Amino acid sequence: MKSFQITISGRVQGVGYRYFAQRAAERIGINGFVENLLNGKVRLVITCDIWKRDLFLNELNKGPVFARVDEIKYCEIEQENFSSFCIK
Length: 88
Description:
The chain is α+β, with helices and mostly antiparallel strands.
């Protein structure tokens, strides 16, 4: 398993994006967290297998109904250990 930091930009705050991400993560079996950033973006830190990451990125690109995802950036980071997925 690997850890990744993901940053989502677009209309992703005030549209239920964090809750959408939490449900998708729990459905796929990914642990970590999601939070709003002051710059209007959403940041996630996750730990999972690469195939789960790719499936999750697909879901994140769709987003909830009123969201608009303009860009998703991700990078591998030092291993993090999470026991669940939460909203910060």
